Amino acid sequence: MEMEKLVSLCKRRGFLFQSSEIYGGLNGFWDYGPLGVELKRNVKEAWWRDMVTAHDDLATLPGAPEAYEMVGLDSTIIMHPQIWKCSGHYDLFHDYMVDCRESKKRYRYDQVRGRWVTHRDRRVFITSSAEAAEQEAENLTQRALKFFNLRGKNAEELKWEGEVVSLTQAKDFTQVLGPDAKELGTLTEPREYNLMFKTIVGALGSDDDAAFLRPETAQGIFVNFKNVLDSTRVRIPFGVAQMGKSFRNEITPRNFTFRSREFEQMEIEFFCHPNSSRGWYEYWRNRRMRWYTDMGLANERLRLREHDPEELSHYSCGTADIEYAFPFLPPGEFGELEGVAHRGDFDLRSHMEGKLDPHSKPELKVELGPDGKPKWRGSGKDLSYRDELTNERYVPHVIEPSAGADRGTLAFLCEAYCEDEAPDENGKMQTRTVLKLHPRLAPIKAAIFPLVKKDGMPEIAQDLYRSLKKKAPAFYDEKGAIGRRYRRQDEAGTPYCITIDGQTLQDKTVTIRDRDSLEQWRVKLDDCVEEITRRVGG
Ligand code: ATP
Q1: Which atom of ligand 1 is nearest to the CA of 405?
Q2: How far is the CA of 402 from the centre of ligand 1 (A)?
Q3: Which one of 220, 299, 316, 424 has the lowest number of neighbouring Cβ atoms within 10 Å?
Q4: Which residues contact 301 (CB under 8 A, 6 or more apart)?
Q5: Nearest in space to 406 (alpha carbons), one of 216, 259, 247, 190
Q6: Residue 376 has what pLDDT?
């Protein structure tokens, strides 16, 4: 599937719009249109329902070490700035960027890709300026030809070396041709850049009142750990789920909504006894992977990638990413949908004591105050847990399945998009565009059409529409040829279309058409609402 086709469908049918479009847009921000908002709400609703409200806390689910409870939380976007110091985001949450002196553009260091090429005795690292991955190779050739002043027919004079690699592997920046530059060596050395958006709290705010928009929802859960324990009857093992907006000042937002500056996360912090945390990690990794396949992502485009042991922090015994082969990535590459991390007791301990782990990244330096002690500390509150049965006190371990609602929504859209052949109203086969979304995710569950605008058909159709709408999102359409009405619903991902026709007037039956199989069958008008709600899981 070509990504441009999906992007254009999203705009045309109101799934996604560029934010602030009439003012020229704002890079890295996206608005969800009338169909998109329903789709994304359904993704979040399915997650919340499957993970929290419909969770059976009395049963030991397959693969789980024991039964567990789940509760929800909704914390604020702006929190005490100390939280980000203790979490490590203030000191460590950065990317490296490079600037181009010639084009004045800024790039994320590790995302610039290029390849070494030699012509005569000049060896240059040509970087790609192609937006789409599939154009990368062609773009590199064109840029190299232009740089060496060669014609297309002389392309074989170029001696390419190795594979296309990240700029991080090109040591000598003087021989690099930046993605939008005409001259060599215009890229600056990489510089560190904190990804948190800063803001000021209060009218008289100075820099001392600086606060941050949260770059993840997780910390809101850790700092409320005691509140949740004291206000509910949950006992370990239990999970707290939260979804909401997060903000990251990404250097190069790109790939549609995949890398945005404002996005939504769906996160769970699962608290358990240190002795059983490994088993819980495995459970959550598999549980979350299964959720994506249940929602319709195909196995061959979905994978679970365990991080190498050397990539892990010493407190963690595992991190796995659930990844999807997005069509905008080069063949064979996958993009992260969700990370499932075993975080040990690192987070609760940091908020308790404020000491960052001495074994963690060496570049972490804690600023010392005049008394020689670290300038910032944790909350000083006891965030340990006492087991009422055994009287054991411990700091729980945490398993964190952290998903992105926008990346999930984008993956479901990519997976659903397809073009196939369907007969038009004259029985002629025509190409149609269809979104084969899982019925739970589809923005509209059923559309209702009177075949013609007379003989009482619209009245029957409108009555059915009103009854169905009480149970499931439905759409009424009486305009244009029936074939075109079907096509519009196929593009919107509507699983069922119901038609009121001449036969309805005689025997009170209607036709239901299935979006994917194109099968049509008749049901009694009076049974129609029940049939649709049963099929879409309402
Ligand atoms: P990446 O390496 O792609 O930047 P990450 O490892 O920093 O992602 P996490 O910090 O693990 O991401 O965040 C958890 C989830 O939040 C990700 O799996 C992703 O679904 C989502 N997410 C993170 N950053 C963005 C972003 N800029 N735009 C959209 N979703 C994001």
Answers
A1: 20
A2: 8
A3: 299
A4: 324, 325, 415
A5: 259
A6: 56
Going by CA atoms, what residue is nearest to atom 2 of ligand 1?
336
- Beta-bridge partner residues of 423: 429
pLDDT of residue 331: 86
Query: How far apart, in Å, are the Cα atoms of 133 and each of 323, 415, 525?
Result: 17, 18, 50
How far is the CA of 529 from the CAs of 471, 484, 517, in angstroms?
Answer: 8, 24, 20
57 to each of 68, 222, 231, 238, how far by Cα in Å?
Answer: 5, 22, 18, 9
**Which pLDDT score is estimated for 316?**
79
If you take atom 25 of ligand 1, which residue's CA is the nearest one? 259
- Alpha carbon 33 to chain centroid distance? 17
Q: Which stretches of the chain drop beneath a pLDDT of 50?
A: 357-364
Residue 361, pLDDT score: 47
Can you read off the two tokens belonging to residue 80? 């005490």
Question: Looking at residue 372, what is its pLDDT?
Answer: 65
For the sheet with 159-166, list strands across it.
159-166, 113-119, 122-127, 176-177
At 268 the pLDDT is 98
3-state secondary structure 19-33: CCHHHCCCCCCEEEC
Q: Structural domains in the chain?
A: 33-77+215-411 (3.30.930.10), 96-193 (no CATH), 444-535 (3.40.50.800)
> Which residue stretches of 88-217 are H helix?
89-92, 136-147
Residue 14 alpha carbon to ligand 1 centre in Å: 25
Closest to 167 (Cα-Cα) out of 214, 132, 125, 229: 125
In the prediction, which pLDDT does 193 show? 84
* Ligand 1 contact via 403 beta carbon (within 6 Å): yes
Verify whether ligand 1 is closer than 6 Å to residue 402 (CB atom). yes
pLDDT attached to residue 310: 81
Looking at residue 424, its pLDDT comes to: 75
The reported pLDDT for the residue numbered 362 is: 44
Ligand 1 geometric centre to CA of 404 (Å): 6
H or E stretch at 284 = helix 277-294
Q: Which of 407, 409, 412 to mutate to test the pocket of ligand 1 (most atoms within 8 A of CB)?
A: 407
- Count of beta carbons in the 10 Å neighbourhood of residue 430: 12
d(CA 336, CA 288) in angstroms, rounded, equals 13
